[in-house]
Write a structure and sequence with these properties.
This protein is an alpha+beta fold and 422 residues long. The protein is built from 15 helices and ten strands. The mean pLDDT is 94.
Length: 422
């Protein structure tokens, strides 16, 4: 039973976590979080880490090589569809702001909590049904380990329209059909000519100051130098056409400084411009709540947060973004990546039946296991799989227990949070 003191502590933690936001941005973020328990969950990753960082139950399925790259803020909308016209659209992990090298179970537990909250939001509340879905997710994850041990990396296949199933393949095909670079540029920019800049009448963009533009243009050369070390581009490819401030983005990261940079790109193409997404990076939530040993290793591993984001993206992602790097501005270190013309998600309101939910839960488990296994050579797949099958409570049972427990905690804190927001 959650005490009033514990709930009050969580509310204080939320206020403290967001203390650096302006009052207006905090009000907007809290209004977004108050829409539903699931939105609240997305906006409070720090509560998850505070709750589970030192949970001893994790030791049941941990050995000395249980760390790998993890997504760090896993929920259904941090799986996404991305790619470009030169490759198949991929459904996989797509946000790496909170990524770090840590115990693989943090991703499993957080995604299981996400699934539980979506089940409740969609009207599925019977324990037998919710347990079945969580079980399928966890079981699918473990099955990838078994297949990998027996058959090697050949079993690790990215998920595209060709091998996705259930409603997912249809959603990927729909995104492929309705989205394109042309449509993306029409949405975000004026399209009168090749040198036309951002459309600042669009509610998601705002004008930047002359001083900020000059700063970005000055620092941009260092970014370009880094990406040219690994890939070849045309001489004028990175010529800046325009820069705008990206507003009203994300839930947990709402209010984080973010810029869109429109560059010339491939001038021989009619719609060859590229939009670069520059987003301020800070230490992940895990850094605050994990022990000093984790902090020491983290500080040794990464010279800055842009490098951490870049390494996580390459480790956990299927798609190679040639524009991926970082830039240092007055606010701090910003990750830089191309905005995909096909950026989209699986709408969870479509999960309106046991059949659809079951099929997507299996694919969520598969994708997560694939990402964990491929991202680290030191990850002990065989040893961890043996623990999954040997220890009690069962691997899948613990994940079900954790998902229910934290979803209940999330709902109770959310209820008080919404009262305070009124």
């Amino acid at each position: 039973m959650l005490s009033q003191n514990e709930i009050a502590g969580a509310i204080n933690n939320i206020n403290d976590w967001n203390k650096n936001l302006s009052e207006q941005l905090k009000k907007e973020k809290f209004r977004k979080m108050a829409q539903s328990p699931y939105y609240f969950f997305r906006g409070t990753n720090h509560l998850f880490w505070k709750y589970f960082a030192n949970d001893q139950r994790m030791q049941l399925f941990t050995n000395e090589n249980s760390n790998t790259w993890i997504q760090g803020d896993l929920h259904a909308y941090n799986y996404g569809i991305y790619g470009d016209k030169t490759a198949d659209l991929v459904y996989g992990l797509n946000d790496f702001d909170e990524s770090c090298i840590a115990n693989y179970q943090f991703d499993l537990w957080r995604m299981a909590c996400s699934i539980m909250l979506i089940l409740r939001e969609n009207g599925f509340t019977k324990r037998k049904f919710t347990d079945t879905i969580i079980h399928l997710f966890a079981e699918s994850y473990a099955e990838v380990f078994a297949n990998y041990i027996e058959n090697g990396s050949v079993v690790l296949q990215k998920v595209t329209k060709c091998n996705a199933f259930g409603k997912l393949d249809d959603v990927i095909k729909e995104v492929e059909k309705k989205d394109s670079r042309k449509k993306m540029l029409e949405r975000w920019t004026c399209t009168e000519n090749q040198n036309c800049g951002f459309d600042l009448s669009y509610e998601k963009l705002a004008e930047i100051s002359k001083e900020k533009r000059q700063e970005i243009e000055k620092r941009f050369a260092n970014y370009v130098k880094r990406v040219r070390q690994n890939f070849e581009f045309e001489d004028d490819y990175f010529e800046i056409i325009d820069i705008a401030y990206r507003v009203s983005s994300g839930t947990g990261s709402y209010g984080t400084p973010r810029y869109y940079i429109l560059i010339k790109g491939k001038s021989e193409e009619e719609f060859g411009q590229r939009i670069l997404d520059a987003k301020l990076q800070s230490k992940p939530s895990s850094y605050v709540f994990l022990d000093q040993n984790f902090k020491n290793k983290y500080n040794q591993q990464f010279d800055n947060e842009g490098i951490r984001h870049q390494e996580a993206y390459r480790a956990l992602n299927y798609y190679i973004d040639k524009h991926l790097s970082w830039i240092e501005l007055s606010e701090g270190i910003f990750s830089v990546r191309e905005r995909s013309p096909y950026k989209s998600y699986f709408p969870t309101n479509l999960l309106d039946s046991k059949k659809r939910f079951s099929k997507l839960a299996k694919q969520w488990g598969y994708i997560l296991a694939y990402s964990h296994i491929k991202s680290s050579d030191n990850f002990d797949v065989k040893g961890i799989y043996e623990l999954m099958n040997r220890n009690e409570p069962k691997f899948t049972d613990l994940i079900k227990q954790v998902a229910t427990e934290f979803a209940d905690y999330n709902d109770k804190v959310f209820k008080t949070f919404t009262k305070n927001c009124q």
